[in-house]
User: Fold this.
Amino acid sequence: MEVIQSIQKQLQQEVDAFRQIQLDVQQNHRLRQQSLQQQHENEMVLQELKLLSEGASVYKMIGPALVKQDTLEAQSNVNKRLEFIAGELKRLDSQLQQLEEKQRKKQEQLAKLQTELQRVQQQAGLAVQQQAGLAAA
Assistant:
C-alpha cells in the first residue's frame, strides 16, 4: 500500500507541474497576442507617418501634454518600437516551443506513472485475492 501511496503522491505532483506548464502556455499566448496587437498598431502609425507631407506637425503625448516632435524622429521611434516588438515576439515564440516540449514530456511522465499505478494496484489486488484464497482453504 505504501508503494501505491507513493506513486499517487508522485502522480499528483506531476499533475500539478503539468497544470502550471499549461498556465504558462496560456500566459505566453496572452502576451503574444498583446505584442501582435501592438505591432499592428505601430505598423498603422508608421503608415500614417509616411503619408504626411514634409513640413507636417507631429505631436507626441507625454503625460497630459502634447509635445511637438519631428516627423523623422517620430518615424524612427516607431521603427525602434517595431524592432523591439519583433524581438519580443521571437522570444515568446522560442519560449512557447520550450513550454510545449516540457508539456509533452510531462504528458509522457504522467502516462508512465498512471500505467505504473495501475500495474501496482492490480498486483496488490491479486495479492489480496491470493491471501483470501489461502485463508478460505
